UniProtKB/TrEMBL annotation:
Identification of the protein by name: Magnesium transporter CorA family protein
UniProt keyword annotations, A-Z: Cell membrane, Membrane, Transmembrane, Transmembrane helix, Transport
Organism of derivation: Kribbella alba
Stated family: Belongs to the CorA metal ion transporter (MIT) (TC 1.A.35) family.
Entry-linked PANTHER family: CORA FAMILY METAL ION TRANSPORTER (EUROFUNG)
Lineage: Bacteria, Bacillati, Actinomycetota, Actinomycetes, Propionibacteriales
Amino acid sequence: MPRTRCYRNGVLTEEDFPLHDVSEHVAEDSAAVWVDLYARDLEGLQLVADELGLHSLAVEAATGGRQRPKLDRYLGHHFLTAYAVHLDVASGQLSTSEIAAFITPAALVTVRNDDFPIDELLSRWDENADLTKHGVGALVHGLLDLIVDGHFDTVQSLDDEIEGLDELLFDDRPHDVEVQRRSFELRKSLVELRRVVLPMREVVNTMMRRDVGLVTEELTPYYQDVYDHVLRVTEWTESLRDLVATILETNLAIQGNRLNVITKKVTGWAAIIAVPTAITGFYGQNLPYPGFGTAAGFATSAALIVGLSTALYIAFRRKDWL
């Protein structure tokens, strides 16, 4: 069911009133109306659009979904699209929840999916009741603050997961497959996060412009704080993308170094084994040689095998080849 609220001078006066009463509440002085609809409620959205005079292109964008985060201007209202995000730490997958908002001088209409944390938004409005006296601008601030805080928490979780990759990377026991798989998952999530975070800088910056008329002087510090969080998330996301790429390159380099060490050790042991092979092969000839057919010849061959193999082993150990 649609959800509605009406604030007068910052005080919540009515809630869950019918959609056809929206225009009456909007017409009242010092009133700020909030309407919440599901994206699949086409009938309710069309009713609200008729009540508030919303542009048909904006209504179509709200129902179509998969819009780029943006703030569009129409005659009499603005149209906002943004995404709330959530990271599944176990799988490394990022889930997004799109929300569209129609912003008029006296009303905020949100169109969302089921998984958007709308109850948390209401809690923020109730906890900051002193801001709601500034009208729709305060309601929009609460919405943006919720979305951007979710971005910030997600990028912080990604940072923690990437730090765990560093520990696996330099562990004594190789974790090549795990590091590669986890790096790919986190890199994919970072790309998706960047896609929804980067445009938010332009969105918030546009809202703060004076010609938009949404942010009052009292609300400017709050929007500036949101903008600062957007910049931090954007820069953090970019740095984490570079870090994941560096981890992948480092993992490949470590694998190459490990392979070189293994090859060096195998070659060293092969050289040591070649000594007794050569000596026993020589003594296995069907030709007379010094000590042929005597115990002294056997002792000589055994001494050569042990002595030369030991000498090679000591020499390779000193060169750190074994």
